[in-house]
């Protein structure tokens, strides 16, 4: 039984996503002390941004004619796909950056798709928790409703393409405590925080069904 944990925060020391993932990991470890945890931190160890193009263009080149960069990229893409395919459970903590998908996480998705092919259900039936952390608020009726262009895309890939058994733990308003302009939102932010921690414990139970 292997848990795959991926983090993507560029600020790991203060990461709200890591706080939630740590809770899930602790519950996993308490129940399965001997089960391995495979970690990948895209914030501290980003994947090379040009690897995806090399892996993709290698597809049209006979193996003997590929450049060293194409060989390396194909091997990396395959290893990343194998890593997630081997998981019995997965937790992925992904921040919202610039109203979109973290570029480090998008690079990872692109490489996994290059390694596995565009429709391989890599996580078919695998209990998976996506932790989405967002500095602002994007709920129904808020001024920026619809501006979160990350979470729906991540759900599309994880649930529909890779066919994970997906649970989403979303924590909004993470910047309220430290942003003076968001002072009026701090009580609401605290509610979001508390709810996310509760959902983390609940979602850990779904992982342990693996
Ligand atoms: C470079 C950068 C860009 C960000 N862009 C947005 C944004 O567009 N919208 C938003 O709501 N929060 C934004 N944030 C705030 C993050 O979403 C928020 O801090 C979240 O908690 C990050 O996840 P983490 O705490 O796990 O690192 C941004 C943060 C950084 C560092």
Helices and strands in order, then pairings?
Elements: E1 3-7, H1 16-31, E2 37-41, H2 51-58, H3 68-85, E3 89-97, E4 100-101, H4 103-116, E5 127-133, H5 151-161, E6 165-171, H6 186-207
Parallel strand pairs: 1-2, 1-3, 3-5, 5-6
Antiparallel strand pairs: 3-4
Helix pairs in contact: 1-6, 2-3, 2-4, 3-4
Bound molecules: flavin mononucleotide (FMN).
Overall description:
The protein has helices at residues 16-31, 51-58, 68-85, 103-116, 151-161, 186-207, and strands at 3-7, 37-41, 89-97, 100-101, 127-133, 165-171. The chain has 210 residues and is of the alpha/beta class. Strands 1, 2, 3, 4, 5 and 6 form a 6-stranded mixed beta sheet that branches. The longest helix has 22 residues, at 186-207. Residues 9, 11, 15-18, 95-99, 133-136, 174-175 line the site of flavin mononucleotide. Flavin mononucleotide binds at residues 9, 11, 15-18, 95-99, 133-136, 174-175.
Short précis:
It is globular and about 60 Å long. Strands 1, 2, 3, 4, 5 and 6 form a six-stranded mixed β-sheet that branches.
End-to-end Cα distance: 8 Å
Category by helix and strand content: alpha/beta
- What bound compounds does this protein have? flavin mononucleotide
CATH architecture: 3-Layer(aba) Sandwich
Please indicate the count of domains: 1
Q: Please give the radius of gyration in angstroms.
A: 18 Å
The CATH top-level class label: Alpha Beta
Strand percentage: 15-25%
Name given to the CATH homologous superfamily: Flavodoxin domain
Count of extended strands: 6
Uncertain runs: none
Shape: globular
């Amino acid at each position: 039984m292997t848990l795959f944990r991926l983090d993507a925060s560029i600020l790991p020391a203060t990461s709200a996503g890591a706080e939630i993932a740590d809770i899930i990991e602790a519950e996993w470890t308490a129940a399965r002390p001997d089960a391995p945890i495979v970690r990948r931190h895209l914030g501290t160890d980003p994947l090379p941004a040009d690897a995806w193009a090399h892996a993709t263009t290698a597809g049209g080149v006979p193996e003997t004619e590929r450049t060293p960069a194409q060989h390396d990229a194909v091997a990396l893409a395959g290893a990343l796909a194998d890593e997630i395919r081997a998981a019995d459970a997965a937790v992925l903590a992904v921040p919202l950056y610039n109203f979109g998908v973290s570029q480090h996480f998008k690079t990872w998705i692109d490489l996994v798709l290059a390694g596995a092919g565009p429709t391989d259900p890599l996580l078919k039936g695998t209990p998976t928790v996506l932790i989405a952390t967002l500095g602002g608020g994007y709920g129904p009726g808020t001024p920026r409703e619809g501006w979160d262009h990350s979470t729906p895309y991540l759900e599309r890939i994880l649930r529909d393409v890779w066919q994970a058994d997906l649970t989403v733990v979303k924590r909004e308003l993470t910047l309220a405590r430290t942003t003076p302009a968001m002072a009026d939102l701090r009580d609401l932010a605290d509610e979001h925080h508390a709810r996310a921690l509760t959902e983390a414990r609940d979602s850990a139970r779904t992982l342990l069904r693996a």
